[in-house]
């Protein structure tokens, strides 16, 4: 599983599986961007873990992948 993480405040991390799910769906970054209504650069930034999308974009991506948003994005807390 290829997950990307973004460090957040106080040991909180956002983990995403966008690249893994996109690849499994046989979509290019451009195709996913078009379906989600964003730029390819936005998809790249999400996949690299450089950008946490808005709630509405996270939901759009989950719908494109036909999976719950929690399967695409999750929060992990450092113990």
Helix-strand layout with pairing:
Layout: E1 4-7, E2 12-16, H1 18-24, H2 29-36, H3 40-48, H4 55-65, H5 69-72, E3 73-77
Antiparallel strand pairs: 1-2, 2-3
Helix pairs in contact: 2-3
Summarize the main sheet.
3 strands, antiparallel
What is the end-to-end distance? 22 Å
Q: Unreliable segments (pLDDT under 50, ≥5 consecutive)? A: none
Order of helices and strands: EEHHHHHE
Judged by helices, strands and strand pairing, the structural class is alpha+beta
The count of domains is 1
What would you say the CATH architecture is? Answer: Orthogonal Bundle
Beta-strand percentage?
15-25%
Q: What is the CATH third-level topology name?
A: 434 Repressor (Amino-terminal Domain)
Please provide a written account of the structure:
With about 80 residues, this protein is an alpha+beta fold. It has a single domain, classed as lambda repressor-like DNA-binding domains (434 Repressor (Amino-terminal Domain), Orthogonal Bundle), CATH 1.10.260. Helix content is about 50%, strand content about 20%. It contains 5 helices and 3 strands; from the N terminus they run E-E-H-H-H-H-H-E. Strands 1-2-3 form a 3-stranded antiparallel β-sheet. Strand 1 (about 5) and strand 2 form a beta hairpin. Helix 2 packs across helix 3. It is globular and about 40 Å long. The two termini are about 20 Å apart. The relative contact order is 0.24.
């Amino acid at each position: 599983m290829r997950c990307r993480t973004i460090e957040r405040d106080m040991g909180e991390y956002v983990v995403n599986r966008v690249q893994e799910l996109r690849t499994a769906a046989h979509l290019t970054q451009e195709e996913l961007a078009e379906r989600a209504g964003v730029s390819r650069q936005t998809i790249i930034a999400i996949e690299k873990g450089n950008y946490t999308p808005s709630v509405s974009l996270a939901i759009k991506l989950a719908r494109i992948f036909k999976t719950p948003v929690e399967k695409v994005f999750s929060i992990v807390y450092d113990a």
